[in-house]
Amino acid sequence: MWGSPSSSNSSSRRKGVSSSRRGGSSSSGINESKAEKLFEDLCDDDDNAASMEGEILCGVVDDNNNMIATTSSTGICKLCEQLSMDPLEDVRVLVLLWKLGANKKPAEIQKEEWMEGCHKLQVDSIDKFRKLVPGLDTGFLDREEFSDFYKFCFQFNRAGTHKTLEKDLVVALLKMCLVGGRITAHRLDTFCEFLETTKDEGYSKITLDQWRSFLDFSYEYPDAKALKAYDEGMSAWPVLMDEYVEYMENLEKKK
Amino acid sequence: MDNIPVYERDFEESFLGESQDFYRMESTSRLSHAVSGSSATTTTTSDGNSNDNEHDNNSKPAAKYSAMEYVHRARSRLEEEKSRANHLDLPTQTKSALLRIVETELIERHAKTLVEMEGSGFASILKVVAGSPAVGSVAMASANNRMVGAAGGGTLTGSGVAGPRGMTSSENGVVIDRDRIADLAAMYDLFSRVPSSVNHLRNALGERIRLDGRSLVRDQETNVAPPASFVKGVLDMRERFAAVVSDAMRGEKKAQKRMREAFEDFLNADARAANCLAVYVDELLRVGLRGADERKVGRELDRVIVIFRYLADKDVFEAYYKNHLAKRLLGNKSGSEEAERAMVSLLKAECGYQFTSKLEGMFNDMRISKETAEKYRSHKKGLINASADVRDAENGGKPVDVEVSVLSNSHWPSQNVEPCILPTAVKAAMDRFQKYYLSTYTGRKLSWQTSTGGGEIRANLPPLKGSSKLRRHDLSVTTYQMCILVLFNTRDTLTLKQIREETHIPEDELRRHLVSLCTPKHRILRKGSKGKGISGDDDTFTYNADYTSKMTRVKVPMVSMRDATGGAASGSATAAGGAKKGEPAASGSAGTAGALSASNRSGGLVDGSSTVPVAVEEDRRHLLEAAIVRIMKARKMLNHNDLVAEVTRQLSGRFVPPPQFVKKRVESLIEREYLERDEGDRRVYRYMA
Predict the structure, then answer these.
(1) Are B497 and B508 in contact (CB under 8 A)?
(2) H helices of B60-121, where?
(3) Nearest residue of B to residue A243 by CA position?
(4) Scanning A214, B114, B270, B660, which has its CA 20 to 30 A from the CA of B319?
(5) How far apart are CA B167 and CA B174, in angstroms?
(6) How far is residue A114's CA from residue A48's CA, in Å, rounded to a whole number?
(7) Which one of A239, A240, A246 makes the best mutation probe of the B interface by having the most chain B beta carbons within 10 Å?
(8) Contacts of A210 in chain B (CB under 8 A)
(9) What's the predicted TM-score (pTM) here?
(10) Are B49 and B154 in contact (CB under 8 A)?
(11) Testing the interface with A: which of B682, B684, B686 to mutate, by most A Cβ within 10 A?
């Protein structure tokens, strides 16, 4: 949906114009040096990346692994501050980062990605960023786009080279990106409850496959009625979903 | 016959109708206490067939038949009708319609009743056949009489009851009641005329097997019977029911299938059957087949394989079997080398080379160890005896002999126990061997398994009161016992704590071995605390100068874990086997140290457990993943259900994976990026190159 990396930029670049990044505006419509300066303001001293410095987007974790609020002014948080978005609560921060294309490493955006993203979004100043903000609502994304964004949410929030997310983070993230009718509140709430209450040690970390499966599952089985048709024997859903269904069936029985 | 319609309308219809009514009434009344109807007169047939019951018809209310009486009666009736139809030259259509009616009324209608009838139905007779031979011998006699009376005078076609056949006893000592089998056969033959009725017989067969099988399993669950009796019970059952299927049910395929399924059902209810079978085999190979000829070996082991085939989780059996084999090989307890080899061959024929390659490796290791030991002996002879480090002050100047079994880690059941601290002389001997071995086989690593093996210790005891003779006993002990006893050369009393610190023996084994050295029968040490168990770190153990034994060579037996800890332990460790008779007494102290432990405390493989052992679970994980990757690599793309089916099929020779187990492995492989889900259809997996 965001097209290939070689988007409108190259096609509108006139021949003969120096492709040096320094000096003047390029024909892509944004002032590259301005965009670059913006990045440099945000990014850490030596790295070519604006990061969260090991902080998790949804919250900063202190020594005892407790979630605490922060008004840190590093990297992406600086940007958020300027755009008046709370990185801990506001899903639009993630949408922005996803639109910019921060895909290489979790919890950071690299210079190339930033530059390309600015081109794509046609921004080179904080003002222009601010204008984007209203359009960052997830409601504007169609199903395919949202799927991609949803996957990004998981990937971006991993810690370092880990491939999984901690269960607590998963619950917080789900609640953040799935509110607003994308899936039924019933499905979201009960699943989060299930995750929080399960004693199974195997689910202390969640995999990408499980994360993505939950979304597809929720589309296919939005309510209790649909769930009746769930067939564990034939299902190719992850075992986590089988157990969630069992959990729901037990809840029904208790009523 | 010109006017067929007239025949049908005016004769056939009512003829068939009357016949139907008659037989319906007769059969119903015979199976209950109702009085039989007035149509009794028609039962006196022109072919002169008469019997007691027919006389009864005319004069008194019909007696309720037993199932077999009914069967014989029904057969007579069918014969009568057939015969009469022939005499009267009835057209074929009428004859066949008539017989159909009789069969429906007599057989089909009452099939279920005849099977379930209390005391005399098919199910009851089955129970008698399946049960012990002593039961029902009196009942048998009276039943015989009745049958002879009922059938004696008639002209019965088909397999009649020619007279009591009594009991037959098979080669394996299984007693089969042939008369009851004949009864079952009669019923089967009758039912076969209406094929759908035979289902009831098959159901009864399946149910009987299920019930008897379950009760055998229950005996194991409640520990009222030893594992070997479970296997004997199953083998007997099998022989009896095989006779039922082949003789009474004429060997029909559906019954065979039913029997197989019923056996598989109860044998796979949990992992107990696998364990029991392994114990049974162990007993055979230790004792039962000692000195047996080839024929007997073949016959006994074939019976084992018969049950093995029913097992779904063959890998569980393999794990138990391997453990037992390790103990037999290391303890030199095999009754018959040929029988051991034969067993492995049979397993190989059933499951293929992969199943048995490790087992064969174990035999190989033992053979090579013996050869190595030979070479080591010659090597030692070549060494100059005056060499300083061969002499050993602690041992009175004589070097300690070690007999080492060197085992390849990959073949044997795994053990990972830290070696304990050994007496200096013993350690020196072991080091000498190790030096020799590593110089012969470079690039290998040896780890000593001190949890196995044993030694001979000479106890020099002071004279008893009133005598001046020094006493000597050669104690045959385990490695750990040896380490403990040697400590008492320098001190008379030691606490548990001290012993632990100076030997580094693992706690449970330490306690068990200490207790075994202060039992009433073998009070080599005196324990400070009273009672069976050890009180704590400060409990003391004292050298007992008054220890006596009738024998010069004493084998000190091990106590079970339960006895050592006062009953709190789970599972039970087997006591060391019987005394080694006729072993030559060495001039020095001879020791045997195994290089790999075969105790059953490793990897969660506890005898008598009903769950799959941990080691086997791990194995299964690897096998499953390898199979999934292999299949996906070949197919590139495959949907979930097909993948599960294919994997299950490929592994069915070893075990049957629950679908959820397969799913978990697939998920794990997705996470490790061997596979991915297809973007379009999440039920399809793709191989990631």
Answers:
(1) no
(2) 67-88, 92-106, 111-116
(3) B660
(4) B660
(5) 10
(6) 10
(7) A239
(8) 667
(9) 0.70
(10) yes
(11) B682
